[in-house]
Write a structure and sequence with these properties.
The complex is a heterodimer. Chain A is mainly β. Helices cover 0% and strands 50% of the residues of chain A. Classes of the chains: A mainly beta, B mainly beta.
Chain lengths: 115, 112
């Protein structure tokens, strides 16, 4: 069966440009998570969706970052006016529900490079 | 604030050896702890999940232990194979919270 997919797999952009990263969760998974992994660092939680709503946006590093989810499925993470420190691998995960014990399944990630 | 540390950051061993990866966390109030494997370009794969009430979990050649009181977990890999080469990440889930707090990972290389 299909797992979590993300696109693009790689994105190179110039400083100051906006980028959109897409995540397609596993069908039927109501919870969706975005993480960021900078070089040599652990994963950093960004935002969590339950359905289409985002009860926790506490991990978004600045107001340049936003995310939305439509139809309880696809999610888009948008970074406006990108900076070099935004360069990282952005990982998306989904789970059946948001309760603590539910396993999160991860996509392959989008590697973002800001020149 | 919960912090997760993994030691060593990198490890290279010959094929066939048994090895141990370490994960420590600063706050013992965790709900569970997971070990993941990360292969380049392939995202993360969950290996083992240990609930806070459990001491260990086993899957094939992998065994993960948990000692909440000391804030430690170990991942034991028996009879290592070149296909085990990957980065291994541990993550803890806080009580009643869906967030995962991650270690920086151990990059493992198994030499044929």
């Amino acid at each position: 069966g299909a797992g979590v997919s993300q696109s693009p797999s790689n994105k190179v952009t110039e400083k100051g440009k906006d980028v959109e990263l897409r995540c397609d969760p596993i069908s039927g998974h109501t919870a969706l998570y975005w993480y960021r992994q900078s070089l040599g660092q652990g994963l950093e939680f960004l935002i969590y969706f339950q359905g289409n709503s985002a009860p926790d946006k506490s991990g978004l590093p600045s107001d340049r970052f936003s995310a939305e989810r439509t139809g309880g499925s696809v999610s888009t993470l948008t970074i406006q006016r990108t900076q070099q420190e935004d360069s990282a691998v952005y990982l998306c995960a989904s789970s059946l529900r948001s309760v603590s014990y539910n396993e999160q399944f991860f996509g392959p990630g989008t590697r973002l490079t800001v020149l | 604030k919960q912090e997760v540390t993994q030691i060593p950051a990198a490890l290279s061993v010959p094929e066939g050896e048994n090895l141990v990866l370490n994960c420590s966390f600063t706050d013992s109030a965790i709900y569970n702890l997971q070990w993941f494997r990360q292969d380049p370009g392939k995202g993360l794969t969950s290996l083992l999940l240990i609930q806070s009430s459990q001491r260990e979990q086993t899957s094939g050649r992998l065994n993960a232990s948990l000692d909440k009181s000391s804030g430690r977990s170990t991942l034991y890999i028996a009879a290592s194979q070149p296909g085990d080469s990957a980065t291994y990440l541990c993550a803890v889930k806080l009580d009643s919270n869906y967030q995962l707090i991650w270690g920086a990972g151990t990059k493992l290389i198994i030499k044929p």
